[in-house]
Structure formats: structure tokens, C-alpha cells
Write a structure and sequence with these properties.
single chain; 146 residues; Arc Repressor Mutant, subunit A
């Protein structure tokens, strides 16, 4: 289920993988909201259909943005975790949030506006670094990763 690349342009190739409606939303849910299981994703406010979620998780795994594993104490539940390649998308998510904060708030005033957004506005690089650090610590604490 590898993506079909339209051309050899690095920008277009990146969009061929993460540029659809759901891919970065799933990465954001994992990085910022701590989503790890299929059930976690289906219960999110974005309301992704289960068939679409399944296909997107498979593609994210195929391209190495996430890994799928099982907990030793629960072989029935799959656990999805960001890889280093997936974590490398953190600055992209931070830039999208910054752009949205600056340019969409006038037409969508309900966009979240709290402490996290204030930290993001003050220092994007530090905000991104803190997100990555927190996620890496969480991932490192899991003794059952492949």
C-alpha cells in the first residue's frame, strides 16, 4: 500500500504521504493527545471513520512514521507509536498550528487559545522540542517495544 508518487519534487512527494485530510491529524493525536490504540482514535473529536482510520494507520506504518506493536499483558490490543521519522514531523505540526493561529482565528474564533498556544507563540522551537522530548520519554518507558 505504498503511496503513488506523482513526481520527483520533494515537496509534492511529502504531500503524497502526509498531505491528505487525516495523516497529520493522526500524528497530532499521537504526539499531543497521547492516542495509542484504535479505540483512542475512534473516540476523538475529529470523528474519523473506522475504515479510513484503518487504512491511514496501515499507510503510516508502511512508510515508517508509526510502528504497531502489542502490549505483553494484552495481546488483543494493538498499540501505535510514532517512530523517529514520525517525530520529525513535529516542526511541521507546530508551523501549521502557528499559521492557523495567525491566519484562521478571524474566520474560526473557536480555535484553542490557552496556555499551550501562548507557549507556542512565545517560542516555537522550544515548544516543538518539549513535545518531542515528552513523547520520547513516554516511548522509552515502554519496555516492550520491538
Amino acid at each position: 500500500m505504498r503511496p503513488d508518487f506523482r513526481c520527483n519534487c520533494p515537496f509534492t512527494s511529502a504531500l503524497d504521504v502526509v498531505g491528505d485530510k487525516w495523516m497529520l491529524v493522526i500524528v497530532k493525536q499521537m504526539l499531543i493527545e497521547g492516542k495509542e490504540t484504535f479505540k483512542d482514535f475512534t473516540e476523538s473529536e475529529e470523528a474519523i471513520a473506522t475504515n479510513i482510520l484503518s487504512a491511514k494507520l496501515k499507510l503510516l506504518e508502511e512508510v515508517g512514521i508509526i510502528i504497531k506493536t502489542k502490549r505483553p499483558d494484552n495481546k488483543k490490543t494493538s498499540l501505535y507509536l510514532l517512530t523517529d521519522k514520525g517525530l520529525a514531523l513535529t516542526p511541521v505540526l507546530v508551523e501549521l498550528a502557528t499559521w492557523s493561529d495567525s491566519y484562521l482565528r478571524d474566520i474560526h474564533p473557536a480555535i484553542v487559545n490557552g496556555e499551550a498556544m501562548e507557549l507556542l507563540r512565545q517560542d516555537k522551537a522550544a515548544f516543538a522540542s518539549a513535545l518531542e522530548k515528552t513523547y520520547r520519554e513516554k516511548r522509552a518507558a515502554l519496555p516492550y517495544l520491538p
